[in-house]
Specification:
The chain contains 8 helices and 13 strands. By secondary structure, the protein is an alpha/beta fold. It has a single domain, classed as Purple Acid Phosphatase, chain A, domain 2, CATH 3.60.21. The protein is globular, with a radius of gyration of 18 Å. The N and C termini lie far apart (42 Å).
Length: 312
């Protein structure tokens, strides 16, 4: 990063609190979300002892517009950091709209998240369908700010191991002859089978269970759900559908959609859904030894959903 950009990030970080305050003023005028009653005005989902906390992180997706919706969510993420510090954000794809133009990286990433980046918060990204439209996403893979260990990769923080997928690899004109997708599937199964982490979290861009625009991805249900059950994956996180949705436990796995990081689309209802909302938002996740607590947080910094993921 050159000196000019470092100076910009520093100045942006100093203005982070101002951005957070301004975000509230924009909320009613700019949000395309459906108003929902807040569960609470503070994002702490539980009174569980802080000493038992293994890891706190945030997840968000479909962010890369550089427009006010993205800034509103980013400002709420900054407020959450100030009250409940975290060092990790899962960025679940469509990081740069509309066609993965890497020259927009300041506008759609470095500027909105400058207050978090200045505090050393690490973003870990995967590629969305819009990201691979330009050079197949290679510039994003190489970008230090996204901390990608490749097109798909794994990393571990204490008792929590994360498995990042490029779900675009399964969208091909020749699904019966897809060596790249087959290689990723084999890699994932091997990595899961070798992991001794008590917590296993997989994230990718495309949905598996969804009540939104794209619906249930039956091909992914067949491909991933049995593997998740066999190797004890407790949580799958994705974007692609532009809403928030937390599924019920399905064979031990919770499916979490956090695709309302900059805009929203209407959603329907399904019996597998525990909670769904058409509202600009992100999720804060606290992992303890026996459970993980999910908080859906909107641009007014209110918790509109709380869920528990039991460790299996």
């Amino acid at each position: 990063m050159n000196l000019k950009r470092r100076q910009f990030l520093l100045l942006s970080s100093l203005g982070g609190l101002g951005l957070a305050a301004c975000g509230k003023l924009f909320a009613s005028a700019e949000s395309t979300s459906t108003p929902l009653p807040a569960v609470a005005n503070a994002p702490s989902p539980t009174a569980q002892a802080e000493d038992d906390l293994l890891l706190r992180f945030v997840t968000v997706a479909d962010t890369g517009t550089g427009a006010r919706g993205q800034y509103q969510v980013a400002n709420a993420m900054t407020q959450y950091y100030q009250d409940s510090p975290y060092q990790l954000v899962l960025l679940a794809g469509d990081n740069i709209y509309t066609n993965g133009e890497f020259e927009k990286i300041e506008q759609v990433f470095e500027e909105p998240y400058a207050p978090l980046l200045s505090q050393g918060v690490q973003f870990r990204a995967v590629l969305g369908n819009h990201d691979v439209r330009r050079e197949n996403g290679e510039l994003q893979i190489a970008y230090p700010g996204f901390n990608m260990g490749g097109r798909y990769y794994t990393f571990r923080q204490g008792d929590v191991q994360f498995f990042a997928l490029d779900t675009n690899l399964y969208y091909t004109r020749s699904p019966q002859n897809n060596p790249a997708g087959d290689a990723q599937t084999a890699w994932l199964e091997q990595a899961l089978s070798q992991s001794d982490a008590p917590w296993k979290i997989v994230f990718g861009h495309h949905q598996i269970y969804s009540s939104g625009h794209y619906g249930v991805n039956q091909a992914f249900v067949s491909k991933f759900a049995p593997m998740f059950k066999e190797y004890g994956v407790q949580l799958y996180v994705n974007g692609h559908d532009h809403h928030y949705e937390r599924s019920r436990h399905i064979d031990g796995t919770t499916y979490l959609i956090c695709g309302a990081g900059a805009g929203t689309r209407p959603i329907g209802q399904n019996e597998f859904s525990a909670y769904a909302a058409e509202t600009l938002s992100f999720a804060g996740i606290e992992v303890y030894r026996d459970r993980a607590l999910i908080s859906g947080i909107d641009t007014n910094y209110s918790v509109f959903d709380r869920g528990v993921v039991e460790r299996v």
